[in-house]
Amino acid sequence: MADTNMDKIIQKAKEIAEIVVGASAELYKSAEEKTKLIAKIAKLKAEIVGEKTAVKKLYASIGKQYYHATVAGESPELTEEVAEVSAALERIEAKTAEIDSLKTQPPADDSGEEPDAVYTTADDDEDDETDTDYSEDDV
């Protein structure tokens, strides 16, 4: 009888160990997926900052060229710079849309359950100096 009780205890311990191992694997996979997602969002945000910096430089260049042409009594040729600004604004818009899409996509989960929350990053709601709203109206 002592052997059967001991066997039951050993069997129960094995079952519990299997459950813990399975849960640990799922947690690891989930954490890995969330880390990759956050890294992708951070990369896109860094690219957006670079694009916004380029737009600021182009705006300055356009203003400088316009000023010097006006002083010289000429009409400035700004077609190339304006096209570059428009292209940069389109890239910013595309990257922002990709970030929004990544934040709202559910995690890859085989359980079929709905996700508990939408992915966000710490600086999603904070205002920062680089998050200036650029649009074609600014050109």
Description:
The chain has 2 helices and no strands. With 139 residues, the protein is mainly α. It has a domain at 39-106 and 118-138. It is 69% helix and 0% strand.
Structure, briefly:
This protein has 139 residues and is an all-alpha fold. It is 69% helix and 0% strand. It is rod-shaped.
With helices defined by DSSP (H or I, 4 residues minimum), what is the helix count?
2
Reading the helices and strands in chain order gives HH
Q: Residue-averaged pLDDT, rounded?
A: 81
Rg, nearest Å: 27 Å
**Shape, principal axes of CA atoms:** rod-shaped
Q: What is the end-to-end distance?
A: 87 Å
Number of strands: 0
> Uncertain runs with pLDDT below 50, 5 residues or more?
112-119, 125-132
Q: β content, as a range?
A: under 5%
| Share of residues in helices | 55-70%
The biggest beta sheet is recorded as: none
Structural class: mainly alpha
Features:
2 helices; 139 residues; mainly alpha
Topology:
Blueprint: H1 2-71, H2 79-104
